[in-house]
Amino acid sequence: MSHHDAAERDLDILETHDTDVLAAFEGDVPAGTRTPAALSRRLRHAGPAIIAFLAVVVVWEALTRALDVQSFILPRPSQIIERFFATSGQIWGAGWNTLIEALGGLVAGTVLGVGVALATVRWVGLREGLMPFAIAANSVPIIALAPIMNAWFSITSPVSKMAVVAVVVFFPVMINTARGLIEVEAGELELMRSYAAPPREVMRRVRVPHALPYFFSAMKVASALAIIAAIVAEYFGGPQDVLGQYIIAKANLFVYPDAWAAILVASILGIALYAAVLLAERLVMPWHVSFRASDSS
């Protein structure tokens, strides 16, 4: 082998090694795993959940037919699906309005929770003073908050529903984010101090990356709570073109398949919000070990 060929071989090995190390560090999935086999593995992981869901629907349909259960007690899945498509324009319009309320409150509660968490890391005394208020806010039930917010922001304004959602979302986001910012390895902080890093750099390079998994765990909970809080807040009055008022109106008329169709829309919206959080988590922190483990399994 000539000296030139040997040099090219060594260069190829070095480039391959550097690419693999960089991909492993950044959490990228190697090109070899982006294959139909990888997709098949993911489908196998989702298989049990899909089978369980279909089994519940089939048993539900069979039992309600066999026992002749009336629709005002528990409608059949076939009835719910039929009304879902028959009233899709109306219930999706109401669902969109509810989603806007949920998103507005989710954003407000998240911004407030993260802001308070950052402040509590900077000032320990503030953390000790604010924690009892945060716990008290989390202890207040939604049914007590909704009438108060309606009085503050007008019963017809979506801001009153957003305020309820923001209060409900605030606590899990603040607590989890603060925990992630505070519970940092002492060795990492000592290393940053040895480099004479200012507090801003310690926050950016150590505390924030460490807090991201905690933050997204809180957001997964908050995304579901946002839809629930918005619908419950709507039960206490307001415009009629929202899911909460739609469900109440149909239930009062004993048209329960329509009410369940609206509940199905609420479930879809909750799943969509949860999926959006999962996507954001993967985009923001692809380096996290949980993604690397799931991609290689």
Walk me through what this model shows:
- The chain has two domains: 1-34; 88-290, MetI-like fold (Orthogonal Bundle).
- Helix 4 crosses helix 7 and helix 7 (158-182) packs antiparallel against helix 9 (199-234).
- The chain has helices spanning 3-26, 36-66, 77-86, 88-122, 124-139, 142-153, 158-182, 186-194, 199-234, 243-252, 256-284, 289-296.
- By secondary structure, the chain is an all-alpha fold.
- The radius of gyration is 25 Å and the shape is globular.
- It contains twelve helices and no strands.
- Helices cover 82% and strands 0% of the residues.
Features:
single chain, 297 residues, mainly alpha, MetI-like fold, 2 domains, 12 helices
Radius of gyration: 25 Å
Distance between the termini: 40 Å
The beta-strand count equals 0
User: What's the CATH class of the largest domain, please?
Assistant: Mainly Alpha
CATH architecture type of the largest domain: Orthogonal Bundle
- Main sheet properties: none
Tally of structural domains? 2
Broad structural category: mainly alpha
What's the layout of helices and strands?
Elements: H1 3-26, H2 36-66, H3 77-86, H4 88-122, H5 124-139, H6 142-153, H7 158-182, H8 186-194, H9 199-234, H10 243-252, H11 256-284, H12 289-296
Helix pairs in contact: 3-11, 4-5, 4-7, 4-9, 4-11, 5-7, 6-7, 6-9, 7-9, 9-11, 10-11
Short description:
By secondary structure, the chain is mainly α.
